[in-house]
Design brief:
elongated; two-stranded antiparallel ribbon; 37% helix
C-alpha cells in the first residue's frame, strides 16, 4: 500500500488564495464607506457644536452679559475667542472672569493638513456676507467645511 503524502496541492492553494482575494476586494469598499460615514458624522457634530457656540456668544452679547462694541454685530471676531473666552460685562455687576463658549475648536475631519490649527480648518462667513460667501470678515457668523468633496448623500460637504 502506498501512503499518500500529506499537504495541499498547488491547485488547492491557488483556489484558497483566489477566494481570500475576492473576499478582500469585497470588504475594502465597505471599510472605506464606513470611514467616510464616520467622518461625515464627526463633521455634523463639529458644525453643530461651533454653530451653537456662535449662537450662545451672540445671545450673551445681546443680553449684555459680555461687552459688545458699538456698531458690531455681536458675533465673535474669531473662533479662538470662543475658547479663550471674553470678560463678562461689569456694567451688569458680573465679575471679570472670562465667559468661555468652547473647550476647544473642533477640527474639520475632512481637512487633511494636521499641522494647521483647528480654527483655520474651516471656511468662515462674516455677518454681512451673502449666503455661501465664505470670505474673512470682521466677525464669525457661520462656518463650513473647506472640502469640496461630495457627501454620501450627493450634496457638497461645504454646503452643510
Amino acid at each position: 500500500m502506498k501512503r499518500r503524502a500529506r499537504g495541499f496541492t498547488l491547485v488547492e492553494l491557488l483556489v484558497t488564495l483566489a477566494l481570500v482575494g475576492i473576499a478582500a476586494a469585497i470588504a475594502l469598499p465597505f471599510g472605506t464607506l464606513a470611514n467616510t460615514r464616520t467622518k461625515e458624522v464627526e463633521l455634523r457634530v463639529a458644525l453643530r457644536t461651533i454653530r451653537q457656540a456662535l449662537d450662545n456668544y451672540k445671545a450673551a452679547a445681546d443680553a449684555g452679559a459680555i461687552d459688545k462694541p458699538t456698531g458690531s454685530s455681536g458675533y465673535p471676531p474669531s473662533l479662538d475667542v470662543l475658547v479663550k473666552g471674553v470678560p463678562r460685562s461689569t456694567a451688569l455687576g458680573f465679575n471679570a472672569t472670562p465667559m468661555v463658549f468652547l473647550r476647544k475648536v473642533p477640527r474639520d475631519p475632512f481637512f487633511d493638513d494636521k499641522t494647521v490649527p483647528a480654527a483655520q480648518s474651516w471656511n468662515i462667513r462674516s455677518y454681512g456676507a451673502q449666503p455661501g460667501d465664505f470670505a474673512a470678515g470682521a466677525d464669525v457668523f457661520d462656518v463650513s467645511s473647506r472640502s469640496g468633496r461630495p457627501a454620501l448623500d450627493g450634496t457638497k460637504l461645504s454646503d452643510w
